[in-house]
Write a structure and sequence with these properties.
Layout: H1 2-21, H2 30-33, E1 57-67, E2 73-88, E3 92-103, E4 106-109, E5 113-118, E6 128-140, E7 143-156, E8 159-167, E9 175-183, E10 189-208, E11 211-224, E12 227-235, E13 243-252, E14 257-269, H3 283-291
Antiparallel strand pairs: 1-2, 1-14, 2-3, 3-4, 3-5, 6-7, 7-8, 8-9, 9-10, 10-11, 11-12, 12-13, 13-14
């Protein structure tokens, strides 16, 4: 029984890690890099994993509780995942994900999982369309943030995933809102596959390992065929993948809590393409070093 639970937890852990590795696109940072408006950053430069060099890694710890029908905790698992950037080119990147799951005092090591995707989340060889569709104001607290609205359409089998990105040139984490809808084969939105992610706090001091750094708070509501997921993230643009802390809960179709989890950052290291893996760099240093080759 414990081994069956461990297998399910391992699959969930690898899925968790894969989700955490999906691209959170970063906006136009020409001003930060002193670039002329005509100099366009590549999709890789805008990606929270792609902008770093081979050998960049991140380790997180996830504690997950399964909840019963009376609100009782059925079981608790602790998972540590390490995600490493092993390949990146102009259009795609590849991550290696390792997971160690602890259930009822026993530890289970997974086989490493290799995940490859494009910088807009598309699978290899799947077409993606990116275009600017207008401008908008995003309100965060008492701050009005002018944004460019970009639309990304990615084909996923017979479906299409349409994402609107609200991009700020000046306000980190640059992507201030993301609205994602899945279109079925008949081009109609699937009401059970929709996600809204929005930044709800800016410039919040937060301890990231040994340093206090400015972070942003982000809230995500994801509708799925099985129910609704609510996630609150603390994000730092100097950390690969962005997320340094997370709390999440999963509700079933009837609105009952079935799972809750927390995530904490354990360690990470970033490198530029032309550096040895031992050199510790911030996000900005890594990007500048790579573009200055």
């Amino acid at each position: 029984m414990k081994h069956a639970i461990a297998r399910r937890c391992m699959q969930a852990a690898l899925g968790w890690a894969a989700i955490l590795s999906l691209p959170l696109l970063c906006g136009d940072v020409r001003a930060e890099m002193n670039l002329a408006p005509s100099e366009q950053l590549s999709a890789r430069d805008l990606h929270v994993w792609g902008r770093f060099g081979i050998g960049t890694w991140k380790q997180v710890r996830i504690v997950t509780e399964s909840i019963g029908s009376r609100g009782e905790v059925l079981d608790t698992t602790t998972t540590e995942t390490k995600t490493t950037l092993i390949r990146a080119d102009a259009t795609h990147l590849t991550l290696r994900i390792e997971a160690l799951v602890e259930v009822a005092g026993k530890r289970f090591q997974s086989q490493p999982q290799i995940v490859e995707f494009g910088y807009y989340g598309e699978a290899p060889n799947e077409p993606t369309e990116l275009k600017t569709i207008g401008t908008a104001q995003v309100t965060i607290g008492d701050r009005q943030c002018p944004c460019q609205v970009r639309q990304v359409v990615a084909s996923v089998g017979q479906q299409k995933q349409v994402t609107k990105l609200f991009v700020s040139d000046e306000v980190e984490p640059y992507i201030l809102r993301r609205d994602t809808t899945v279109l079925n084969a008949d081009n109609k939105p699937d009401a059970k596959q929709q996600t809204t992610a929005e930044v709800v706090g800016l410039d919040r001091p937060y301890r990231v390992l040994h340093d206090v750094r400015p972070t942003a708070y982000e809230r995500t509501i994801q509708k799925t065929p099985r129910g609704t997921n609510f996630t609150d993230d603390v994000t730092c643009t100097d950390v690969p993948g962005g997320i340094v802390a997370r709390t999440a809960k999963e509700l079933d179709e009837e609105g009952h809590l079935v799972r809750r989890s927390t995530l904490e950052l354990v360690d990470y290291k970033t490198v530029a393409d032309n550096d040895e893996p031992s050199k510790f760099l911030t996000r900005r240093e890594a990007r500048r070093a790579r573009r200055g080759r």
